[in-house]
Write a structure and sequence with these properties.
alpha+beta; Jelly Rolls; seven-stranded antiparallel beta sheet
């Protein structure tokens, strides 16, 4: 199963308008739960995020942690593990309820096996993430799924096979164990809903799919 870069998950069915509505509700009603880079207080984490954003740290990166971790202790948590303690990730549980668990997010949590770290991430115009591999012990048994909501034709997912534009209306299984990065060269944000799941559950999503409409 590890011999791939990107698989479009055509057997995952969802209502794109419901996904777009969910994002619009977050922007309108839940701005107070938005994570931003200026929330980072830990110096090591700050240096790490600056490094991975490849000189674009000062752009308006933001996200929402929908399934926050058991370690968050009430803090606003980033949409991609930013508020977690990496040393505890393998032992963490992720909430299945909370202020952002409604609409399509609740359907996904209810229906997708082993879903964790569900979040919504906004990459600003000009934002980059350097090419890297997720091969730490807490990463190696998990795959990542991205569901684009808003993008542009210059917002790229980068891996060994080239630069890819992930299209709204589809879900994508991404092998982040291999070298990958992002580069939004467009004039609009790149907005993705994303989550992690076990390799075994990912195989189910590829072979059998699921209906979350």
């Amino acid at each position: 199963m590890n011999d791939f870069d990107i698989i479009r998950l055509d057997k995952i069915k969802f209502n794109f308008n419901e996904l777009l509505e969910y994002y619009n509700i977050l922007e309108k009603n839940f701005s107070h739960l938005k994570w931003k880079t200026d929330f980072i207080k830990d110096q090591n984490q700050l240096e790490g995020v600056k490094y991975y954003t490849d000189g674009t740290f000062d752009l308006p990166w933001y996200s929402w942690g929908i399934q926050i971790s058991s370690n968050s202790q009430g803090q606003i948590e980033g949409g991609w593990r930013a508020g977690t303690d990496p040393s505890k990730i393998p032992e963490e549980t992720y909430t299945t309820s909370g202020p952002l668990v409604f609409g399509i997010a609740k359907k996904m949590i209810d229906k997708i096996p082993s879903i964790s770290q569900l979040g919504l991430v906004v990459h600003p115009p000009g934002g980059k993430i350097i090419e890297h591999q997720d091969i730490a012990p807490e990463d190696i048994n998990l795959y990542t799924v991205h569901i684009p909501i808003v993008t542009n034709d210059k917002a790229f997912w980068i891996n060994s096979s080239g630069r890819h534009v992930l299209e709204p209306g589809f879900a994508y299984l991404l092998n982040t164990h291999r070298v990958h990065g992002t580069d939004n060269q467009g004039s609009t944000p790149r907005i993705h809903l994303l989550f992690r799941t076990t390799i075994e559950s990912a195989e189910t999503l590829v072979n059998e799919g699921i209906d979350i409409s």
